[in-house]
């Protein structure tokens, strides 16, 4: 199983923010979720991969091709959804079809209008008059209609109601079924990632904190709830971070079984991805 | 070339919303031209105004992309930065030429209806070419300004640079006059090569402008 996307030592420096040696590997047939708070570097990473900003250092390969030298060829095979950028709102879905059939070699008009119909989007209405959920559905329809091999999605479920979100997640799951397609998606809605992502990459202050499989995070990680006395006898090397609450300590553990065998802490919760992220950001060591 | 066609299609479809404004523009200036006494005045007014109007309408597509923050998304499509800039220039130049053509046709039509005579075609073509050159210079300044400062902010810079260029041309004419260099005397031989001169100069300013715009756009981040 080869990688569809490889990012090695990516660096990008802005005034007051720096992306430091970002490394990512996305295998074929997998979904990777990129998580982190606002300004952590998720969008900068995505923009660097898409070559819409100039990286300062590092190597990016998509389909084993250099993302700059073979940019056009690569972009024929990727579908992109950006949270804050799309075509003019004065275009209708029918207009977008007229444009895209000249842009993509593999543009599938039939498939596009099938998505438009399934998503119940009016074909001849300008997208300015759409709700935010409808606008997102239109972006997703466009991203999927040229048979891409890789989807790069920046906050693709924001603005969607729970039913539409679930519908989109099903489409993303179907997309990777043949083991040849992959998805890189950033999302604030970490519960979505718990449903679909195979890998979770957590980025904070421009640095990758970890890339783990979803199962590893949800099954192996734990949050130990303990008193001050219990906390004081735990060695620092045995936990990732802790957060002090009013009456107890929440301690993020990488291997809950091993930890329990060593410290016999009674209360051990199964963490959500959101809790893991929060303790990493807000917690102490 | 296919990608350029796609980008131009997008811009033309965006301009659909300007249809009514364009029709009103055509009617108003056709009516105003009727008031002119000579066929020459009708010709110069319509040719220049239509060239200017059509050119400016096409430049409005920059604002559409800026307002919807489309530039970043467009660069995620299989298009190069060169194609994006080239598509814009093709659209603006074609619209300017089309504007001139519409202006010339309208002026022939108005002259025939109002004065019952055909205007001097040679004269009309010279006016048209002069109009294209003048408006071409303005557009050639305006487009790199938009790429550098944005469609909205670029308007102020464009105005300043256009004013500087106008002063520069005015200054040269003024110095020439003071130094007793007779422009009128040179006009005879200039008028013979005027159409070619305008054509070459227009092409030259657009080429320089394209080079500058692409240079700016290549370095830009989205």
Commentary on this structure:
Chain A has 285 residues and is of the alpha/beta class. Chain A folds into 2 domains: 3-214, Rossmann fold, CATH 3.40.50; 221-282, no CATH class. Chain A has 11 helices and 14 strands. In chain A, the strands form 3 sheets. Chain A has a 6-stranded mixed sheet, with helices on both faces. In chain A, strands 2-1-4-5 form a 4-stranded antiparallel sheet, covered by helices on one side. The longest helix of chain A is centred in the middle third of the chain and has 14 residues, at 162-175. Chain B is globular. The A-B interface holds A 47, 50-54, 71-73, 75-76, 78, 80, 82, 84-91, 95, 98-105, 152 and B 2-3, 5-7, 9-10, 13-14, 16-17, 64-65, 67-80, 221-222.
Keywords:
heterodimer; A: alpha/beta; 2 domains; four-stranded antiparallel β-sheet; 11 helices; elongated; B: mainly alpha; globular
Structure summary, number of beta strands of chain A: 14
Number of domains of chain B: 1
Report strand order across the widest sheet of chain A: 6-7-8-3-9-10
Query: Low-confidence stretches of chain B at least 5 residues in length (pLDDT < 50)?
Result: none
Chain pair with largest interface? A-B, 32 and 29 residues
| Tally of helical segments of chain B | 8
N→C terminal distance of chain A: 37 Å
N-to-C CA distance of chain B: 24 Å
Q: What is the 3D shape of chain B?
A: globular
Q: How many β strands of chain B by DSSP?
A: 0
Our estimate of the beta-strand percent of chain A is 25-35%
Portion of residues within helices of chain B: over 70%
* Known CATH architecture of the largest domain in chain A: 3-Layer(aba) Sandwich
Which oligomeric state applies? heterodimer
Low-confidence stretches of chain A: none
Instruction: Calculate the mean pLDDT score of chain B and round it.
Output: 82
